[in-house]
Amino acid sequence: MKNIKDYTLEELKEEMEDLEEKSFRAEQIFKWVYEEKVKTFDEMTNLSLELRNKLKENYTMCNYKILQKQEAKDGTKKYLFDVLDGNAIETVLMKYHYGYSICVSSQIGCKMGCKFCASTGINFVRSLTSGEIVEQILAVEQDENVRISNVVFMGIGEPLDNYDNVVNAIRIINHPKGLNIGARHISISTSGLVPNIYKLAEENIQCTLSISLHATNNEKRSAMMPVNNRYPVEELVKACKDYISKTNRRISFEYALAKDNNDNLEDAKELVRLLKGMICHVNLIPINKIENGKFSKSTNENIMKFRDYLNDHGIVATIRRELGSDIDAACGQLRRKNLKEN
Questions:
Q1: How far apart are CA 150 and CA 184, in angstroms?
Q2: CB-CB contact of 88 with 338 (8 Å)
Q3: Which site from 67, 189, 228, 314 is most exposed, i.e. has the minimal number of CB atoms within 10 Å?
């Protein structure tokens, strides 16, 4: 059965036509789902009983079940959701001074195999649909009774490997009659799928692109991120420059600092040379130790020196505030789980 949350407003209007209903019914349904946040078609009381029955016969509401909810000392909350097919995904809610930010997953498992990520070595099952991505936001808002203002696609999976569903989800999240979250408050993180970076530049979405860079030369980056064997640093940077040129949007480069690997002054110098002249920001991430991972966190002294060198040489760099590490909800610590693991 089709998920009603998989459709943009325009697509839902076409669905209504197929059901021999007026297209404005799609706007009513959208309001019930995204503004009123109802969980059943029966609650859509301004729709006729006949239409509600049609909806029940043809669509599902895809309401996630919370299998587990953990809260970190800093207030970060991690959800384990039953995605209704025997699998589970993790989603993280973070509170900042400007409001609530959510880190959503885009796939069940991941194909990328990055050596510092907890998803490494876990079998890829499938990509999430648009509605399954959007439902993570709805489910958290309903559970916490909060309004989420920022969305980051940095959970389980490679967003650009699930390109169509992720872009469709963003259109629903961004739509004024959908979740109405501004495009500039939506960030997509990618390990560097170059063809889809070019493709995203043509979408005119105006979201923020975050590149998981983590090293400045092919030898080091390939050792950390196998995707670099297919799309080396030079090709990735070229695609990033095209994205900036087409969108006039600043790119955020994620750089996880690993002790005695990519955190010395020479690495900082290479990073300055690589990014010189680009509209960008470097987000330095103290790498999080994972089970069976070979990388460990850089020293605070090296992290500070690295940041200061970049800032002193014209590259805006900040150190990411570490949230949720005590419940494995920080960067690189999310993983797919089967229901039987709980």
A1: 9
A2: yes
A3: 314
Other CB atoms within a 10 A radius of the CB of residue 220 amount to: 18
Model confidence over 251-287: pLDDT tens digits?
Answer: 999 999 988 889 999 999 999 999 999 999 999 998 8
Query: Is 90 exceeded by the pLDDT of residue 296?
Result: no
DSSP string, 57-121: HHEE----EEEEEEE-TTS-EEEEEE-SSSEEEEEEEEEETTEEEEE---EES-SS--TTSTTTT
**pLDDT value at position 290?**
47
* Segment 120-124 long-range contacts (CB within 8 Å, at least 24 positions apart): 120/290, 120/293, 121/292, 122/335, 122/336
Tens digit of pLDDT for each residue in 46-60?
Answer: 999 999 999 999 999
Task: Report the Cα 114 to chain-centroid distance in Å.
Answer: 16
Residue 97 pLDDT: 87
Phi and psi torsions of 136, nearest 5°: -60, -40
Residues labelled as active-site residues: 90, 331
* Tokens at 237, concatenated: 């940077």
Q: Which residue has the tokens 């991505």?
A: 133
d(C-alpha 334, C-alpha 327), whole Å: 10
In this structure, the chain runs to a length of: 342
Given a cut of 80, whether residue 110 has pLDDT beyond it is: yes
The first and second tokens of residue 275, run together, are 């990014």
pTM over 0.85: yes
- The identity of residue 248, as a single letter, is N
- In terms of Cβ atoms closer than 10 Å to its own Cβ (0-12, 13-18, 19+), residue 259 is middle
Token pair of 290, please? 């994972």
Q: Please tell me the distance from the alpha carbon of residue 136 to that of residue 300, in angstroms, as a whole number.
A: 34
pLDDT digits 0-9 by tens, 301-330: 999 999 999 999 999 999 987 654 554 544
